[in-house]
Amino acid sequence: MSLRYRVAALFAAYFFGLGLFLPYFPLVLAEAGLSPAEIGTVLALPLAVRLIANPLVGALADRYARPGPALAVLSALAALGFAGLAAVSGFWSIALLLAVTSLAWGPIVPLSDALAARVQREGGGDYGRMRLWGSIAFIVANIGGGALVGAATELVVVGGIVAGLAVSAFVAMALPVASVRAAPQTASPQDPTAPPARTLWSPRFLLIIAAAGCVQASHAAYYAFSALHWSQAGLSGVWVGAFWGLGVVTEIALFAMAGRIGARIGPGGLLALGAGAAILRWVLFPYAVDPVSIAALQVLHGLTFGATHLGGVAFVAASAPRHWAGAAQGVASTVVGGLTALASAPAGVLYAIGPALAFDAMAGLAALGLVSLALARLAFHPASP
User: Fold this and answer.
1) Tens digits of per-residue pLDDT, 123-136?
2) Spatial distance between the Cα atoms of 330 and 338, rounded to a whole number of angstroms
3) Residue of 107, 96, 85 lying closest to 45 (CA atoms)
4) Looking at residues 34-47, what average pLDDT do you find?
5) Which end of the chain is more exposed for a tag (fewer CB within 10 A), N or C?
6) Burial of 143: CB neighbours in 10 Å, binned 0-12, 13-18, 19+
7) What is the pLDDT of residue 276?
């Protein structure tokens, strides 16, 4: 099996588990007797832990130039951590175990992104076509999990997450032991393709990553309150699931065309497209309460999330030194995670006042991302990112 297929399988295995975790893990916690406040705290832990774990683990993987073994070990440790949930109970035990598990679970995606971007850069495959299999697996888990949760919720959800991570570990063991680079890189001041490590902390780099982070963080109100908003509009759970699925389908479609679109407009164009679509989507979101208008806005998910994600990954891959690829994606993931965490709490407060206020704030956050992108382009580099 070629490397691109193995990386695609790695994405599929991981995102199958994530497709169970995001919608259904709160049900597991509720069945364990946790209060809504405790559930919210537990669900915030993976996001908080990855702020430290992702760049640190990414840097270690880069240092030893062994992405395959690193991903295999991380996936196996995360699988063991989730499996351990069957043996613990109570808020503090569950919270501590999930926090420790997230040290291994969180860095898997940025390391996989770095590997996939490297495969594309060396002509071994298209990032979008590898990543879309993660989105397909996510939808499969959403639908399958929804049909199976009930009397055996913990077994279905936690068991499915563990199974996905176990497959991820198995696939990762088949990845190259050494880095995919053919030879050590010898950077020099005259070589523009091998920038120094300080690029990761340059104002331009951080501004563009902040732009991607702002647009991704603007999804905070959508992730937390879209189902509630649609339900209050009188739509059934079947409609809610269909709308979520439609959004991911448009994301898959964009990933399938990512190579051609990215080559035409570049990372900066993708980020600008995502930011502009997010502003439009969130301004209109509170007023879309019928199936046709909701579906029309959900089609924009392929741009608001997909284009932004593709633009961010492509920019990091093109800007960071090859021997810092994992750390660079980890830094980007940290910025995105931190901004999303900061956006989540006020989104809840604003939504309680009025849905329009919450989504207007999300539109403002996406606009801030567009401003950050423009500043990076005009102040630090006249060419596109």
Assistant:
1) 777 888 898 899 89
2) 12
3) 96
4) 78
5) N
6) middle
7) 97
Q: Provide the pLDDT for residue 216.
A: 94
Indicate the pLDDT class of residue 19, thresholds 50, 70 and 90: confident
Quick check: 13 and 136 in contact, CB under 8 A? no
* Among the ranges given (54-63, 69-78, 189-198, 364-373), the one the predictor scored with the smallest mean pLDDT: 189-198
Place 65 in a pLDDT band, splitting at 50, 70 and 90.
Answer: low
Dist CA 91 CA 280 (whole Å): 40
Angle value at C-alpha 35, between 32 and 38, nearest 5 degrees:
95
Q: Give yes or no for residue 385 having a pLDDT over 90.
A: no
pLDDT of residue 64: 54
Residue 369 near residue 210 (C-beta atoms within 8 A):
yes
Least confident of 259-273, 344-358, 364-378: 344-358
Q: Give 37: exposed, middle or buried? Use CB within 10 Å, 0-12, 13-18, 19+.
A: exposed
For 78, what's the count of Cα atoms within 13 Å in the CB-facing half-sphere? 30
d(CA 219, CA 376): 23
Average pLDDT over residues 360-366: 96
Is pLDDT at 301 greater than 90 in this prediction?
Answer: yes
Using alpha carbons, list the distances in angstroms from residue 24 to 10, 114, 160, 232, 336.
Answer: 22, 28, 11, 20, 23
- Scanning the structure block, which residue is given the tokens 């209109």? 284
